[in-house]
Each structure stands twice: as structure tokens, then as C-alpha cells.
């Protein structure tokens, strides 16, 4: 199982490249060293190599996707008017269930660290939303609100820094369970994968509705959705590219990755609608900016007329 936003392959791909260890013979024959060291995958052909590289590009896009929105929210200060809280809740729920799937199916350390980073950025977005929601709805300043927000983010950062190590150390006991119990845990992990895909799909609908209701996309960063589109597109491509290298059943491989393919390609289609909204409502933002630019030019003239009247 792969994380909902992290591309990974099941053991079906790499298992044929591994050999039993013997004296003077490497465990992985003709494997790519850096991939073996980083991802613990034995890759010895061009199809699998392209799949891994495209998958890492996908992961990198997802890692960067929320950063532009965090900056836009900080710059604009009115994120509660632009972002849908349902979008943020579903996104966080998708990453949490994806994290549960990573734990139950004993994924690689890099996948655990990555999905924890996703949760961290989700918490920042949610915290920003709540902070500006409370701040902008209050008629008076509340200095304690900023300190509560900083303390919350600090505590969350420390907890999430320690979490991957604890999960990796405590997750090793899952591999020593009986075959029946291990199968049950694996099925639960795949169920979490399907749930994560449903959450990711549901996350776009509240934001699409919010944009349509406002007839504007002001306050949201398009890079959030553009990078997500690149991440989902490259993830789907990384799964498809590896198919020619499979020596086992291609049908079983597709079935095992179906949940994440549905989630990634489905979200990709929905993000195309969001892109259309950014194009459609761009004129509204331009018109509003034009009005704001003219306001400073009008105010001095009015003040001069008032002075002449007084004289």
C-alpha cells in the first residue's frame, strides 16, 4: 500500500529482482544503488527506474503544494473568506487515514516521514484558518490569541518530529504477527487507502462551491492546486509506467493500487474545474484591484474641495 499522496509500489514489482544472499553475492543484482539506499527497492530496468523518478517528482510536488497557500493566507489575512473549512477538514482526514494505512502496512520510513509532513502542513492551514476566523470576527484585539496559536504550532511540531521514530520502532511488531492476523491488518490498511481517496475527492467539492458562491478565487493560491495536479498526474504515470516491467499479474497490481489511482485521477479532474474557476473569476479580481488602485487618487481631491468650502 502506498500513502494517499506518496507514490509507492507493492512488493510485486521488486520481488523478482531480489536474490537469496550467498557468499560473495549481493542481495540485489544489478540494482540502482541510490534507489536501494533511499527507498530499499531493487530497481534493475528502465521502466522501474522511470517509475521511481516520476514518483519522487510526485512526492516533491505534494511536499511543496501547501506552502504557497500558507504564505497567501499570511499575506492576505482573510483566509476564512477564501478557503472552505470543509476543504481543509477533508484534506486533513485524508492524510490521517493515509497515515493509518502506512502504519498498518509497515511502509518505508521515507513514506512515514512524508505523510507526517503532510499532516503538519494541514494543521498549519487549519490553524491559520481558525486564527484569522477568530481574529477578524472579533471587534477588539486579543494578544493571547497569537500566543495560543504559536504554542499550538510549537507543540504540534515537536509531536510530529517525534512521531515517525515512534511509529517506525513500534511498527516492527506488525511483521511478526501470524499470517491470519497479518492479512487482517493488511486489509484494514487497504480500507484506509480507499477512505483516504474518498476524503481527497470530497475535499474539492466544498472549495468549488465556495468559489462559485463568491464568484471569486481571491485569497487562495493557485499553486496549491497546480502542484496537486502535477503530483496526482505524475503519481498515476508512475504506476502506469512500471506495468511493462511486471513479471507477475498486471491485474493484481492494478487492483492493489486502484484506491490511490481513483483518488489521484479523480482529484486531478476536480482540480481542472478549480483551474477553470481561477480563469473565469480572474476578471473579477482584476476589476477589484483596479478600483482599489484608483481610491488613493480620489481621496486627496475630495479633501482639497472640503478645505476650499471651509475657507
TrEMBL record:
One of its GO terms (molecular function) is L-lysine transmembrane transporter activity. This is Lysosomal amino acid transporter 1 homolog isoform X1. It is a multi-pass membrane protein. It comes from Pundamilia nyererei. It is found in: Membrane. The lineage of its organism: Eukaryota, Metazoa, Chordata, Craniata, Vertebrata. Gene3D superfamilies: 1.20.1280.290. Belongs to the laat-1 family. PANTHER family: SEVEN TRANSMEMBRANE PROTEIN 1-RELATED, SOLUTE CARRIER FAMILY 66 MEMBER 1 LIKE. The chain crosses the membrane at residues 46-64, 85-106, 112-132, 144-167, 187-203, 223-246, 258-280. InterPro entries: LAAT-1, PQ-loop_rpt. Keywords: Membrane, Transmembrane, Transmembrane helix. One of its GO terms (cellular component) is lysosomal membrane.
Amino acid at each position: 500500500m502506498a500513502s494517499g499522496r506518496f507514490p509507492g509500489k507493492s512488493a510485486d514489482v521488486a520481488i523478482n529482482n531480489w536474490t537469496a544472499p550467498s557468499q560473495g553475492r549481493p542481495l540485489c543484482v544489478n540494482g540502482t544503488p541510490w534507489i536501494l539506499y533511499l527507498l530499499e527497492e531493487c530497481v534493475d530496468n528502465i521502466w522501474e527506474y522511470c517509475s521511481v523518478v516520476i514518483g519522487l517528482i510526485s512526492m516533491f510536488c505534494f511536499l511543496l503544494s501547501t506552502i504557497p497557500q500558507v504564505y497567501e493566507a499570511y499575506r492576505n489575512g482573510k483566509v476564512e473568506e477564501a478557503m472552505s473549512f470543509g476543504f481543509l477538514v477533508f484534506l486533513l482526514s485524508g492524510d490521517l487515514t493515509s497515515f493509518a494505512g502506512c502504519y498498518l502496512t509497515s511502509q518505508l520510513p521515507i513514506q512515514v516521514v512524508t505523510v507526517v509532513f503532510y499532516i503538519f502542513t494541514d494543521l498549519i492551514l487549519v490553524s491559520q484558518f481558525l486564527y484569522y476566523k477568530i481574529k477578524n470576527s472579533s471587534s477588539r484585539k486579543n494578544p493571547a490569541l497569537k500566543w495560543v496559536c504559536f504554542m499550538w504550532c510549537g507543540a504540534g511540531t515537536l509531536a510530529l518530529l517525534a512521531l515517525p521514530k515512534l511509529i517506525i520502532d513500534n511498527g516492527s511488531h506488525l511483521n511478526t504477527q501470524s499470517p491470519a492476523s497479518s492479512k487482517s491488518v493488511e486489509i484494514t490498511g487497504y480500507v484506509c487507502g480507499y477512505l483516504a481517496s474518498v476524503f481527497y475527492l470530497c475535499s474539492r467539492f466544498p472549495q468549488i462551491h465556495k468559489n462559485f458562491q463568491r464568484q471569486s478565487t481571491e485569497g487562495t493560491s493557485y499553486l496549491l492546486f497546480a502542484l496537486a495536479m502535477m503530483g496526482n498526474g505524475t503519481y498515476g504515470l508512475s504506476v502506469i509506467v512500471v506495468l511493462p516491467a511486471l513479471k507477475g499479474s498486471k491485474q493484481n497490481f492494478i487492483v492493489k493500487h486502484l484506491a490511490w489511482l481513483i483518488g489521484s485521477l479523480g482529484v486531478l479532474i476536480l482540480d481542472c474545474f478549480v483551474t477553470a474557476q481561477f480563469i473565469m473569476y480572474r476578471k473579477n479580481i482584476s476589476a477589484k484591484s483596479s478600483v482599489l488602485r484608483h481610491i488613493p487618487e480620489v481621496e486627496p481631491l475630495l479633501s482639497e474641495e472640503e478645505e476650499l468650502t471651509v475657507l
